[in-house]
Amino acid sequence: MLVYPSAIDLSSSALRFLSRHLAERRRAIGCRWRRLSSNRQALLVLAHLRCGDTYSRLAAAFRIGVATVHRYIWEAIELLAALAPDLADAVRTASVKAYLILDGTLLPIDRIAADRPYYSGKHKRHGMNIQVLADPAGKLLWASPALPGAVHDLRAARTHGVIDALTETGAACWADKAYRGAGPAVRVPYWGRWEKLSAGQQAHNRSHARIRALGEQAVAALKSWRLLRKLRCSTTRITGLVKAVLTLHLATSA
């Protein structure tokens, strides 16, 4: 077997954050000895989430069994997911912001044509629908639980209670045309062919698009974790993965 050195494009603060929480968990459950220290376990988890390294590659790199890799990774993911902010936390944080940006994205998954609930007609591929809230600077604030890719963005936002939360707090929110009908809490562009819109409506849509473009930075930040670019795990575990990534992102970008 050939071995070569590699790197993870994360700051050391991510490693320290995860290592500290893993060490606290080990003390809480009275764990005395493991094959890897909490620091090495954190490094293994970050390599999986950030680089998408497989269990077999990680097992060879860290000289442990594949089953141990699986156990270490999902122990950390469950720990991180429990620390992720919920929608109420995100809206509370957003209350001091001028406005929010709401967007939806599709996380590709490994499914066959027969799995229709996971097929997105918009993206022409199988995946899971994730709703994202960002601040005016494009910083990721919250990511929703995963729903099948066939679910429309507006329906997903309503299912997660995003529309109701925004309405209750009175927070201004910008979103694309997929959220038409969400109510006054969500501001969308004017609908219609460009040439049929008035000059004022065209200017409004251009300004609207510039604001929403910053929301794409939040989606890009989420997908910079390469594991989320092509998920091959059970769909029931994707929500935990997204929450774990959200926790790490917020912890290292504060």
Radius of gyration, taken over Cα atoms and rounded to an integer in Å: 20 Å
The total beta strand count reads 7
Point out poorly predicted stretches: none
Percent of residues in beta strands: 5-15%
**Overall pLDDT confidence:** 90
> Major sheet: size, sense and barrel closure?
7 strands, mixed
Number of domains: 2
Helix/strand/pairing category: alpha/beta
Percent helix range? 40-55%
Quaternary state of the chains? single chain
Question: H/E element string?
Answer: HHHHHEEEEEHHEEHH
Q: Total helix count?
A: 9
Large-scale geometry: elongated
Descriptive overview:
With about 250 residues, the protein is α/β, with parallel strands linked by helices. It folds into two domains: about 10-85; about 85-225, no CATH class. Helices cover about 50% and strands about 10% of the residues. The protein has helices at about 10-30, 40-50, 55-60, 65-85, 85-95, 155-160, 160-170, 200-225, 240-254, and strands at about 100-110, 120, 125-135, 140-145, 145-150, 175, 185. Strands 1, 2, 3, 4, 5, 6 and 7 form a seven-stranded mixed beta sheet that branches. Strand 3 (about 125-135) and strand 4 (about 140-145) form a beta hairpin. It is elongated.
Keywords:
254 residues; alpha/beta; seven-stranded mixed β-sheet; 9 helices
TL;DR of this structure?
The chain is of the alpha/beta class and 254 residues long.
Topology readout:
Elements: H1 12-29, H2 38-51, H3 55-62, H4 66-83, H5 87-94, E1 100-108, E2 119-120, E3 125-134, E4 140-143, E5 147-148, H6 153-159, H7 162-169, E6 173-174, E7 186-187, H8 199-223, H9 238-253
Parallel strand pairs: 1-6, 6-7
Antiparallel strand pairs: 1-3, 2-3, 3-4, 3-5
